[in-house]
Amino acid sequence: GAVVSQHPSWVICKSGTSVKIECRSLDFQATTMFWYRQFPKQSLMLMATSNEGSKATYEQGVEKDKFLINHASLTLSTLTVTSAHPEDSSFYICSAHTTGRNTEAFFGQGTRLTVV
Amino acid sequence: AQTVTQSQPEMSVQEAETVTLSCTYDTSESDYYLFWYKQPPSRQMILVIRQEAYKQQNATENRFSVNFQKAAKSFSLKISDSQLGDAAMYFCAYRRTMYSGGGADGLTFGKGTHLIIQP
User: Fold this and answer.
1) How far is Cα B39 from Cα B114, in angstroms, rounded to an integer?
2) Do B112 and A107 touch (CB under 8 A)?
């Protein structure tokens, strides 16, 4: 099946710094990718929709200036957590969908972010 | 807005037995997808099974099958012959079809059910 690669798998950063997470679709083109956040023992919450060549669409309550999304190509979307704070510590997961009637979502391996 | 409800935070089943995980959802759409995803301790999301709302026939994938009741907005997952490797978090998820309003939508997930397999 299709593969989505997410990097890094874990990162520790200091408060106030920025962290970039990459999401790549390895064997298909994805005009749309999605970013989710998962707190410990909780569900995945959709943060934003990343659109190739245009601005991302953010869910209600998600700060677009805190979570910068860039989708510069059909195979790469990046999420940058700016001026990170300990409350931004979480598990971030991206996904990309194949197109057509039998569309399917493929997920990256996730990134565990710890802000100290 | 659509919502997905999983009312069982945790379920336990003996190895080789059958277990059913419940899921209900709410939507005003007539055409959509429903999914069950498995998330093992590695936290990689793995698709277990998918159901398209316009199909009346319940989806099956080997030991996994669903009971899709569109009118009741219910979508339960049955795991037969449970195996130790089935132990994981299971998430029910909903997604509008791309044809409903153009473009792809993200998934709406339930809160998950932690499945424990007793050897």
Assistant:
1) 9
2) no
Query: A93 - beta bridge partners?
Result: A36
pLDDT tens column, B3-61? 999 999 999 999 999 999 999 999 998 889 999 999 999 999 999 999 999 998 999 99
Mutation target vs A (from B107, B111, B114; most A CBs, 10 A cutoff): B107
How far does the CA of residue A107 sit from the closest CA of chain B (Å)? 6
Which of A4, A38, A107, A113 to substitute to test the interface with B, most B CBs within 10 Å? A107
CA A18 to each of CA A66, A115, B89: distance values in angstroms, whole numbers, following the listed order: 9, 10, 31
How far is residue A62 from each of residues A47, A58, A74, measured CA to CA in Å?
6, 6, 24
Cα separations in angstroms, A83 against A37, A47, A116 = 17, 17, 12
Least Cα separation, residue A16 to chain B (angstroms): 27
The H or E element spanning position B101 is helix B98-101
Residue B49, Ramachandran bin (φ over 0: left; ψ between -120 and 50: alpha; else beta)? beta
Burial of residue B78, with CB atoms counted within 10 A of its CB: 0-12 exposed, 13-18 middle, 19 or more buried? middle
Rounded Cα distance between A9 and A25, Å, is 16
Task: Report the distance separating Cα A88 and Cα A65, nearest Å.
Answer: 13
Eight-class DSSP state of A59: P
Confidence (pLDDT) at B83: 98
* A110: alpha, beta or left? (left if phi > 0; alpha if psi -120 to 50): left
